[in-house]
Specification:
Layout (H helix, E strand, L loop, with lengths): L6 H14 L5 E6 L2 E6 L6 E3 L16 E6 L2 E6 L6 H19 L18 H4 L23 H4 L9 E8 H10 L4 H16 L8 E7 L1 H4 L9 E7 L9 H15 L2 H19 L4 H18 L2 E8 L23 E8 L2 E8 L5 H12 L4 E8 L12
Parallel strand pairs: 3-4, 7-9, 9-10
Antiparallel strand pairs: 1-2, 4-5, 6-11, 6-12, 7-8, 10-11
Helix pairs in contact: 1-2, 6-11
């Protein structure tokens, strides 16, 4: 935020906000061998720190969500298995409305902001995937092995989770996208692909970027709060490498369009649902963890990197009080994830890495420079995220 945090105001804003999101006020429990979310009426924890408490622990009052603050920063920690960026943005939007209204003694516009006391519709509450029996049969297409960023750069021993933060003017980057037939997610994916290709010009493996896709549109469930993220695969094909940037961007946008069709997205959902059922069919938690790890390794073999863009945050009038905005999560099957956020007139690109080396960040920045895109490398931090305590015991 632009000013120091008022902790009493934040406490009131959090309590009011969380009363609007009862489906996030839950505890993860294990009963009869199954994991369930149970209602949790304990207060949501707020700590005076830049590092939050472990979720689903005594320190978090067994919530899967917690807040912390330090100086002028407010931090929301939330379990990605419970919601995604779209769902988390709604919580932040509500929180900023209540916090800024009281902190600055103003009456903010509340259009399209979820407010306490409203009736929560079934469309917002229920899981649009659970119980679906009409999902199409998934495709069984073989994918070639993808470039592995860790082994390619010899970073096997560099096991230090790191985040590089890059800021770009929103208006200038959008103008660049319009001039080159791009969009924020596809353009960042393309520039990253070009950077990797220049590092390994003789590489035989595929450069394949997984661009995250919001599945709500295909499910006809725009209000759903669950974690509903799929992906499209953007391959930097050999024949594209000599094309001009705008033609490459057109090709990437075409891939996004083709793979974002409702039938294709639902096939992806059917595939991930099948994987979940397979994991749940295992008799012990150890077997489930082993199976999930194996699937994670398989995904890492076909994906070079991932890019995620929720879309313009649109925090309304509260944005005038925001100085900076960061979006951190753990890179899953890949060694590198780029999270893109658009808040208060600028894009922030977070390079979330399983290693500390700047080799790929530097190559990406060279792409920005070569294309006349002005940037600010804001800082470099350890990727320090709170843990989640799982109820292993019966």
């Amino acid at each position: 935020m632009r000013d120091l945090i008022a902790p009493e105001v934040l406490r009131h804003a959090v309590d009011t906000t969380m009363s609007r999101y009862p489906y996030f006020c839950v505890e993860l429990q294990k009963k009869d061998g199954q994991y369930i979310f149970a209602e949790n009426h304990r207060p949501v924890v707020i700590t005076n720190s830049l590092h939050g408490v472990d979720l689903n622990s005594e320190e978090s009052n067994y919530h899967m969500v917690a807040f912390c603050w330090k100086d002028n920063w407010i931090i929301l920690d939330i379990f990605h298995g419970m919601t995604d960026g779209t769902g988390a943005y709604e919580v932040v939007r509500t929180l900023l409305y209540y916090y800024c209204s009281e902190r600055y003694h103003v009456r903010l516009n509340d259009d399209d902001i979820r407010l306490a006391g409203e009736k929560i519709s079934l469309e917002e509450w229920i899981d649009p995937v659970e119980g679906r029996t009409d999902l199409p049969t998934p495709s069984s297409k073989e994918m070639s092995e993808a470039v592995n960023l860790i082994t390619s750069a010899g970073l096997e021993k560099d096991d230090r989770y790191t985040v590089y933060s890059i800021a770009i003017s929103e208006s200038e980057f959008m103008r660049f996208n319009l001039d080159n037939d791009g969009s924020p997610g596809t353009m960042v994916s393309l520039l990253l692909s070009r950077a990797i290709a220049k590092l390994y010009p003789a590489g035989k493996k595929t450069i394949r970027i997984a661009l995250c896709v919001n599945q709500r549109k295909a499910l006809h469930a725009p209000l759903a709060h669950q974690s509903l993220v799929g992906g499209v695969m953007l391959e930097y094909k050999d024949q594209m490498r000599d094309w001009p940037l705008d033609r490459q961007a057109t090709a990437y946008r075409g891939m996004v369009f083709a793979q974002s069709q409702e039938e294709i997205v639902l096939k992806g959902l059917a595939s991930s649902s099948g994987i979940c059922r397979m994991i749940l069919s295992k008799e012990s938690d150890e077997e489930r963890v082993g199976t999930a790890g194996y699937i994670n390794d398989l995904a890492g073999r076909i994906i070079t990197s991932s890019v995620s863009y929720v879309g313009k945050a649109n925090y309304r009038e509260a944005e005038q009080y925001i100085r900076d905005f960061r979006l951190w999560t753990t890179p899953a099957s890949n060694s590198l994830l780029v999270e893109i956020s658009a808040v208060n007139g600028r894009f922030t690109l977070e390079f979330l890495q399983r290693f500390s080396s700047p080799v790929y960040v530097n190559a990406f920045l060279e792409e920005l420079e070569e294309n006349g895109i002005v940037y600010d490398l804001q800082d470099v931090n350890d990727l320090d995220l709170p843990n989640i305590k799982l109820p292993w015991a019966e």
